[in-house]
Design goal:
By secondary structure, the chain is an alpha/beta fold. The protein has 10 helices and 7 strands. Strand 2, helix 3 (52-66) and strand 3 form a beta-alpha-beta unit. The structure holds NADP nicotinamide-adenine-dinucleotide phosphate (NAP).
Amino acid sequence: MTQAPTPLDKAAARRKYGPWAVIAGASDGTGEGFARELAAMGINLLLISRRREVLESLGDELAAAHGIEYRVHVQDLMVEGAGQAILDASSDLDVGLYVSNAGADAVGKGFLDEPIERWHGMITMNVTTVMETCYHFGHRMRERGGGGLLIMSSGSALGGIPFLSMYSSTKAFEGNFCEGLWAELRPFNIDVLSVLAPLMDTPCYRRNTEGTGFLMDPSMAWDPFDVSRGALEWLPHGPLLIYPNTPSDADRGAEMAERRERVEASMALGSSFNAPATS
Ligand SMILES: NC(=O)c1ccc[n+]([C@@H]2O[C@H](COP(=O)([O-])OP(=O)(O)OC[C@H]3O[C@@H](n4cnc5c(N)ncnc54)[C@H](OP(=O)(O)O)[C@@H]3O)[C@@H](O)[C@H]2O)c1
């Protein structure tokens, strides 16, 4: 994978992204990877997902290993009000980093073959909750003078995929949203990154493909902990980190630079909407 332009300075990262980080979807896969990396930097953690005992066991382990504090908040991100509940659970914490990790499509069915409530749930998790948390943490970070927003998206954000129509559409929201935010929040010392993640050997992915006939050649899939580590390295260099599909594919640095240039070029147009009226 393309190397981040500069290695992450861990002491500087702790100052900017600490003393507390919030991870939505922290109990396994890349979410667990983020928790492990951030704890090793000495950053306290608010761990969120649906399984309390898994979060507590991870938190206990990381607190013992790194001397950090942790807190657990049990929350289904697909229900309305999840964004507000996360804000309430962190209202007394000085949060320097928000990570939106959960967001996979746990079913992968045809659009017409699932109850519409499931698609509403996906929109809530990948659009509404992401928007609400970025809005409120963004305000808090602007007031405190800096921070980071890291949103896990997917390579499927780059184009629609049959049987993942809703998933790829919500992932496209995350990518586009972060591109705009990255430019808007840069003047406030807030780093924004959306990770267009590749195929990863996560527990969720294993559960979803088990017995489906979809054969995963292990060499094709990324180790989720490598992806979390890479994402944190890239956090100061948004707006997008586009992973090669497999670990042996060529890096996508040229595509990332092209997307970034397009955002930078559209800054003047975007700013003109905000300019005070002249008459
Ligand atoms: N795996 C891949 O191949 C792949 C490829 C491209 C992009 N991605 C992206 O990478 C991210 C991580 O993917 P993943 O494969 O690890 O699966 P995931 O289900 O998105 O993430 C797993 C984590 O999220 C939590 N979680 C899942 N649904 C939740 C819900 N409704 N409410 C609260 N927490 C929830 C799980 O904990 P609990 O079970 O304890 O709630 C677990 O901690 C996602 O944003 C996904 O879109 C994954």
